[in-house]
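Hi C.,

You asked whether I'd gotten around to modeling the 308-residue construct. I have! Everything is below, sequence then structure, no commentary in between.
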Amino acid sequence: MKSNTKSKILIALGILFALSPIIATNLRFNLGSSNKSSKYSDDINLDKENLKISAISGKIHIINNSGWVDFKNAGNCTGEGTYSEPYVIKDLEIDYAGSESCIWIENSDVYFRIENCTLYSSGFFLNIGIRFSYVNNSQLTNNNCSNNYNGIYLYNSYNNTIARNTICDNYKLGIELSHSFYNNITGNTVNRNERGIQLYLSDYNTISKNAANNNHFYGIGLSESDHNTISGNIANNNQEGISLYSSDYNTVSGNILLGNDECIVENDCEGNILENNDCGIIPGYNLFFILGILAIVVIIISKKLKKS
């Protein structure tokens, strides 16, 4: 009787040991990951009360630095276009139900800032919330670029900062950089788009502390883009957390990538540094599982030997 009880206890312990990695993973997903996520919550949790709308505007299209002068003279912005006194566009609501862009800036290298604007298309037809072509030295902060075809799109643009914006529920892309270098994408919420943040033929950019969750394909994707830094982001519940295609010598570190079909995907890449990313996998999981199975086998064999 005592022998049977002892065997049952050993079998139960063996099963518990085998399942312990799975239990630990679930606990880590539900508890540990939420703690890690809270580490960045102050950076990516936008205060929507700051998006105060004070004026309804038609679409804005500024071409060349001289276009800014005309725009200011018409009473549409403040500032001087310098580093210390940039031009400022703020507190606008633009609903452009067409096939262009709510705000489109071209061929500009003066300093300017766009902040606290809500940019969308009720017509939802091939429009972009904010579009830059050959633009340098801008800051896009605390804007809401949701419910467009694409949220924010930069082409051949340098030294721009995209920070603390809400860019959700766009039909295609949340944020896209194409042929653009030395830009900073930080603290944005980029959820429920087809693709979250995408870099194409764009080098030396920084993507940090963004939330890119529940996008149909990937949270963050690089295509033919080199020497970029992707750090401290949360990209959960996408098809791919981070996608790297023909992109070399990038640093991908300290990101939280849970609940994705695939955590980090590399295709035709070389020299990328992938370190300290949390994919919800416990180091040594396979070893724990194998040892647990072996423990059960040993108990069963030992029991059969005693009977014989």
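If it helps when you're writing up: The helical segments are 2-44, 64-73, 285-307.

Thanks,
B.
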